[in-house]
Amino acid sequence: MKPLLLSLAIATAVTACATATSPTGRSQQVGAVSQEQLNQMGEEAFAQAKAQNRQSTNSTQTNYVRCVVNSVARELPANWQANWETALFVDESPNAFALPGGKVGINTGIFTVARNQDQLAAVIAHEVGHVVSRHHDERITRQMGAQAGLGILGAIVGSQYGQGAANAAGQLGGAAVQAGLLLPNNRTQELEADVVGQRLMAQAGFDPAQAVNLWQNMIAASSSRPPEWLSTHPDPQSRIDELRQRAGSLAPTYQQARASGRTPRCG
Description:
Blueprint: H1 2-15, E1 18-21, E2 27-30, H2 35-52, H3 59-73, E3 85-89, E4 96-99, E5 103-107, H4 117-132, H5 135-146, H6 151-157, H7 163-182, H8 187-203, H9 210-221, H10 236-259
Parallel strand pairs: 3-5
Antiparallel strand pairs: 1-2, 4-5
Helix pairs in contact: 3-4, 4-8, 4-9, 5-7, 6-7, 8-10, 9-10
Keywords: Hydrolase, Metal-binding, Metalloprotease, Protease, Signal, Zinc
Signal peptide: 1-18
């Protein structure tokens, strides 16, 4: 009976997945887990990152990053305006991430390519764009479908159906979370996060044209050794061209934000 009940629970959850519309109008398959569960997984992944990586003790840099995060977060829809938590990790690689539950991680190496507050806002708004575009939800839903819905759902119900189910669920669930939360985004999601993030930074009073400068810096910094992020990101030059075109169309949004008093002074 227990395997049967577990299978029925899995089938119910997979069937419950819904078609949603992303902020850019793209159709998405989401809903394999609830937003509450996504937030919990984001919090757990963030806690693990903080436990395994050294955090900066430079209060000036930490406050600088937190200021930019908060400025961007204020422009999010009300249901996303949590108290976003920021961690600055001592790591030379120019990387950043954001997770459900309002978590943002930044490596100190980002300062080598994000050379002013507007460029840092381009990084942060892009990563936050993944969260509000439900990209983690989308990836987990896809991954759970591929694994016949075991993974995360099994981890949730495993305790009710015995230790064997819980152990199996833990193994498969870990793989699903890894794929859904921590592995690189695909090109479609990257382009969408560009659109959402560039709009967010303009609404927050950061110059959207600086997203172009950021990516030029990224390319220059990676000329000797292509970083891992290039494997799943769109062609850099095409990306820069699109960012430049959008910056022009977002100029009125940026100017209106500044005229309305949204003039971040983070650093």
